[in-house]
Specification:
Blueprint (H helix, E strand, L loop, with lengths): L3 E4 H6 L1 H11 L3 E4 L7 E3 L2 H15 L1 H15 L11
Parallel strand pairs: 1-2
Antiparallel strand pairs: 2-3
Length: 86
């Protein structure tokens, strides 16, 4: 994936448009400044929340192992589908 990049002044002048684009397209945006150490990446809050949840799950060894075992069972066809009525 190639991340779109925009210079800071353009980002500032079109902030609302870029915020909408990042949220609507679920694609991050790099904001470039004169000093590369000050570049930033803009993502939607929902993407941020998803990344935080993924990190939380990955850091929980017991839960991570359980998820991996479940994925292996699905790949091996060792699961049964059940309909949930509600």
């Amino acid at each position: 994936m190639v991340m779109e990049a925009v210079v800071y002044s353009t980002f500032r002048n079109h902030l609302k448009d870029y915020m909408k684009k990042v949220n609507d397209e679920f694609e991050p945006l790099t904001v470039v400044s004169k000093n590369p150490d000050e570049d930033i990446v803009v993502i939607s809050k929902s993407e941020w929340d998803s990344l935080q949840e993924t990190l939380r799950l990955a850091q929980n060894k017991e839960l991570s192992d359980k998820v991996l075992r479940g994925m292996a069972e699905v790949r091996a066809g060792q699961v049964q589908l059940h309909e949930i009525e509600g």
